[in-house]
């Protein structure tokens, strides 16, 4: 902007000098070829001179030119420049948009390249695309936007984490979360929640999406190898907004909305259905012939208090717990004010925002206040200072949703018998229902699962334009400071804290300091006309310190006292400290031949990590990449309809070290006590050879743009092989240890990725764009550890297994053979791989691979954008498929025994049960009793689902209107999210979006929101 | 020249900044604030004492004596059943388990690893009282024997028609000695396990010195003999059972709890005279919902309920009846482990058990009169009429009443070759489980089978 202004100034001065010469006056109007509208600000210059002017607000110009002037050149950013001969005193021009000229610059964290110079397959999204999506953390908004990126959120609780898998699962032990890089610096992104039972809490949610300029997802080796040890799972590069010089521009936005569960979830039995089932169980089990006799039976009348006798006496009341625990039309609101501007040597961006969101379940809320201040200061001609600072405070009242905790309202929805009632006759909360489940209304009112989190992120750099041409030195210091505290409180009257405990409280405090210091040298070199090099040498040192403190106590004399000050009896105190360090040296060379006809990238990183033994601490990571822009070749550049055509490939090695700390030495642990005295015990087996896990990453692809860049896209293939895999190899438990972390085994991921965007209609007032992306993934374990006898050491649970030849954690369980129509017994195949023999004894049914895993084989996204004279409609959808989901909790919630009819509750799907010989039913004969966990393929469902992620309808007020009311811009919109969900398997009644283990749980499902927003620019 | 000058300044500044930030392999050493190194940081008697306490703490795990071991030995008998209130112990009570449940296999071997680390120390190389270190090593041998005995009782095949016992692990293994130690051991035959257990008990007894016997919450010299009498009784080595019991009785350190103090003796209390070895539980263990009290009573869990018929087996004047009580219609263990926060100590062996061991072994050796006298020591302290005759069944019934809910009943049924009788519809299993049934040995956990190809699974799983 500054240069442009300077240019204008020059042009104006020049014009003044020429007044004295022999002159004539010309004038005219410049319009757009798209819609014929006038274009202000177009540069109008007499060819071969510096004489010129710019068009005014109506697209008109007038200037004096020398008599001999023959041609005028019209140019404007984003338009093709044209030359028009002077044939009279009126010279008009029509400009065509130049779609190729505005080339996107991809931000890769350590480097930035023009898109044509990319040798890899990174995808960049602008912050504006994502800002209006009503989620606290930006990662959730990425779902369906990038090919090969699978995003699932186990919970829809506001502020909870999303699980991101870029190009599949490459590690078993060292984690599969991508690295997050904010403004060039790796940060720690985690679920900071102190309680594994309570809702997750995303540290990324501290970064207000409104402050984000762009997000780049790095997938291939050339982009990720620069991040060395932590690049193996891909990198998400977030760039926050910087100041833009000029008059202050102020942006105010406000959003209001409501949310409900996107999925109703399974339905439960009515009290009458449960009674019917209970009577049937007595008849089936004790040989009772009639319902009347069953009602006289001891187990109906007396056993465990004769629940149904009392229920009938009370007039058969019905407790609708699904309704009780639902926070219908949960409100959300968000306000954001930001300003940017600057003059002379300083530019700034600043913002303040507030978000308040309630969960769709009672007793859970999320709130965030965040502010940002980013400054660019030119200290002198050659020194520049940049600082980006974000501070945020967020608060989440969560719920114990990560298991079937009785105090979680989500558990109550599926576990509380309908014979229990939420309210007493006088309208007060009923606390004396039979059984072990507390009333969630009381819990929501009294208990706490409160997280409070402050994050301070300060990123400061000084750049020195050294006296040596094109050599720039910069140094950067970053601190990322987290302060987190958590309060869990269980009231003394009813619930987890009742009885002898008399109320319990647990408070934790956690602070994490993450420092990164970087020194870098950048050098640009042009050899001859055509060889352009940009080289970077970078040194980075990162320290991470984590401190934890907690205390707990019991016995509160009254309700409503939640702090430990009121606890009659302290029960525990704990604190600990851990740290890790990473040192790295990075060299990068980017080479471009003949204006990117050929491009090559080289990077090498040497990195040392404190997680490994001294002799194994350092690792080497590298990558090479090449691209060939065919459009720069004569045989293609002549083809009109091809605008971009680039072949690219890259190969490299990145690493992963994200294992538990200090695993290499055999350690003594001291977090033990006996008889009130401190004690110690051997804590881990150790492994002095522990070192890096590496991922070898091959990427080939083609990028294209056709028909005046109306059609843009890419197609690619990737192959990733993990070697020296960090694996918690199970040890014989006779050693006293469960496992040893070792570098052993291999795993691969491969697949195709495609992205496509089509401008169906492209004009000033009317545009239609449709786009889509698709990624496939095939995962296979290639090699695992072997024990002393040469047998493969598998990692097996009751439902999945890590085994060579199959996807990691492939589903592995006994195969259900249906319900025997004659006997009503559930049956399983003894070994379906051998024959079709069946058994009614679950224990003799062999676990077999069920074909597939929890990892989707295909993920895809689709979107459409339409705008017409300021009105716009956006919609996007997400698909994941080819994977399977296991229904957790079915022992209780799909029980034909007492769990379903008496102790807890059951889904109404169990009504499809066997009653008499000949019945074909999905569930067997009911019985009076309980069964142990029997996990088998009946409860394994196809996970394929398609979700209409969001639909937005809005209006950007026309400039003429906005001007009249004295604004710079005005936008209003309404948006719906997760409006429709299609699930392939009818038996999958829960939200199909589950956690990475592929097991459905009792978390808050994804939410369906309707929001309206207004955005005003001053 | 000017350029060179600039260049040298530049290089200097750059090098300076890099140097400040540079780091070597040593700079990357992590801070160990909560841990120490196994191979260098065991330096004194006090360090060994800490590991010993760690081993005892591991015995108190919920999966072991903290709850599950005791409960599994009650719900699989004629004493208790699981009402399924919270879904706990119904599998075990129905003997419907499979190899996916590990039971206490891992907890037990963790204790063994801890005590093997103590045994691996060379007292002469450590600072402090060498005799005390040897005493603690003696305790370690006894604990090793006790835990292997527990494993053998639950996983050994002797009650399920087989001969295999359990692996006998006698060396502490880490990455440092993994090449020299067999870390995938096979199961030894039952009789070999018994021999090794008895040898460890003898060695432990010899290494301990009574002057260090300060607390019943630690293994002491006569606890070794008490455990020996239990092992001998279990494997029908009557003479050894007698001599071991006589050693305990002869020590004069213990006495039978008096009638009026019986119920009280299970409450959180200072030392009681009948305790030989007990595990310490206190506030800081915060056992709470995962403790014995929570599973025996209350409505939150309270899964383990007493079979209704049990109320009728006690003599009207028997003080032990005071352990029982009702919560609504549910018959409960109200008296043992009474504190709902789980802070009551757990008896592993008490003197009454030794007296009954002694009586039973004497009877087996044909000394009925002496056996009757021992039996009546119990009867007279429990408010019931003295027995005039003695039979094996009378002794076993007396044991059942005396040790009810303390996790001994299943062992008594097994060692006497008894069926587990289905006599109440409340019991979770469907029909009487005959002695020799495969379910009377736990399955070897799947995790062990997967990681150790030398391991052999029990029949039926």
Defining key terms:
heterodimer; A: 1018 residues; mainly beta; Immunoglobulin-like; 22-stranded antiparallel barrel; 5-stranded mixed beta sheet; 55 strands; 10% helix; 47% strand; disordered N terminus; B: 461 residues; mainly alpha; two-stranded antiparallel ribbon; two-stranded antiparallel sheet; 41% helix; globular
The radius of gyration computed from the alpha-carbon positions of chain A, rounded to a whole number of angstroms, is: 33 Å
- Counted beta strands of chain A: 55
SSE pattern of chain B, N- to C-terminal:
HEHHEHHHHHHEHEEEEHHHHH
Helix content of chain B: 40-55%
Name the strands of the widest sheet of chain B in spatial order.
Answer: 2-4
The tally of helices of chain B reads: 15
Q: Specify the CATH architecture of the domain at 2-95 in chain A.
A: Sandwich
Strand content of chain B: 5-15%
pLDDT < 50 runs, ≥5 residues of chain A: 1-21
User: What's the number of extended β-strand segments of chain B?
Assistant: 7
| Mean pLDDT reading of chain B | 92
What does this structure look like?
The complex is a heterodimer of chains A (1018) and B (461). Chain A has 15 helices and 55 strands. In chain A, the strands form 12 sheets. Chain A has a 22-stranded antiparallel beta barrel. Chain A is globular and about 120 Å long. The longest helix of chain B is centred in the N-terminal third of the chain and has 26 residues, at 130-155. In chain B, 54% of the residues are buried. Chains A and B meet through strand 23, strand 24, strand 25, strand 26 and strand 30 of A and helix 1, strand 1, helix 2, helix 5 and helix 15 of B.
In short:
The complex is a heterodimer of chains A (1018) and B (461). By secondary structure, chain A is mostly beta strands.
